[in-house]
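Dear support,

Our group has been running a series of protein-ligand predictions, and this particular one with zinc ion is the one our PI (initials K.S.) wants archived with full inputs and outputs. We had some confusion internally about which version of the output was final, so please treat the block below as the authoritative record. The input we submitted was:
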Amino acid sequence: MYWTKYFIPTLKENPAGAEAVSHQLSLRAGLVNMLTAGVYSYLPLGLRVLNRIESVIRQEMNEAGAHEVFLPCLHPIEIWEKTGRVESMKDVMIRFEDQRGRRLCLGPTHEEIITHLAQQYIHSYRQLPVNLYQIQTKFRDELRPRFGIVRAAEFIMKDAYSFDRDEKGLKKSYDLMYQAYQRIFKRCGLDIVIVEADSGAMGGSISHEFMVESPIGEDAIAACPACGYRGALPTDFSEGGSACPKCNGPLVKKSALEIGHVFQLGTKYSNSLNAVFLDEDGKQKPMIMGCYGIGVSRLIAAVIECLHDEKGIVWPVEIAPFQVEVLALQVTDVAVMDLAEKLYNGLRNCGLDALLDDRDESAGRKFNDAELIGIPYAIVVGKRGAAEGIVELKDRRTNSTEKFPVNEAVDICLKKLGRGV
Ligand SMILES: Nc1ncnc2c1ncn2[C@@H]1O[C@H](COP(=O)(O)OP(=O)(O)O)[C@@H](O)[C@H]1O
Ligand SMILES: [Mg+2]
Ligand SMILES: [Zn+2]
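Confirmed final output from the archive:
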């Protein structure tokens, strides 16, 4: 992609009112734009990251045996009445009537809808287990939308729902999702903390939250500065008085941001919506359910919270909007531009996503923007380099620069990106 033909509206200054680093950087790097409080558009760079994250999630969900579906946002209220959640979730539910007087809501989550679906198709133990997931927009009338896409009224969630014969099956489905979540977050470059949680309005028993340490988080975890342990905050926590389970040192309290949540639901939804099956013993039983959510759009913010420096975002390779950026320093110099284009095409021919900054801007502006948008590697092409056949390779994460002969640059990038040649 040529920068001049693309749409990357970077901002030099921090927009007023954006407190969280992730909020500031996602606006400054031209990832998202606010339409109204809690409602965001994704611009090309932001959408690229979103698509990359979704692709990681799809791979891991499919690998874990879940199948993708796409459920509606518009839900008839009657289904929500059957489970009683029209009441328990009324504070976040966006409700209205259509012209025919049908009572509808915009789905804040999809347990009801998926259970209604399963009830129509699954009738025998032979069809179980089933795990269905989707990546889709959720609507929640959040009283306080905060920190940009971290807490929005309209956001993207990956939600999966498992249906099993018995508790043993549920445990197995739950473990598969639990492990898939660990792989997903690792591939997104995150160092997560998993804590057992309260299952709240969802119903059910066991539940775990996947969190990252972040000052904007609304949850709390315990951390041990001495050995690096992190985990659930003890119920009787006291600063200085609680000991690390690993090294016995004093624990401190840290804020954490929830990015994923898994629940063993049991039969709450299958009972209310009559999702039953005939078991091997000839008895009719409710399906045993689990549900598994990842805040896909929040994940973008969580990654920025955890992976940035004073200059901008530091994307991990797997979810970076581009893998390599070629910086042509003097675009009016034919030799520089020729070499930059040659390298750009070389990268693309190897299947890499490359961005060529071909703007007629100062080198300073280009370096600043490159650091702001956080592409993992940059090849810098200048006059001297073009004359001597040497280019510079900058590593966004370590901030280090190495010089290479022009004809090695593409191979070196491939190697650094783990695509060895
Ligand atoms: N308002 C929101 N904006 C963005 N992401 C959200 C929002 N609410 C929830 N999420 C994401 O969806 C995931 C699953 O949602 P859930 O556990 O039902 O949310 P909550 O814990 O806020 O009730 C959360 O872990 C979080 O990452
Ligand atoms: Mg939650
Ligand atoms: Zn410790």
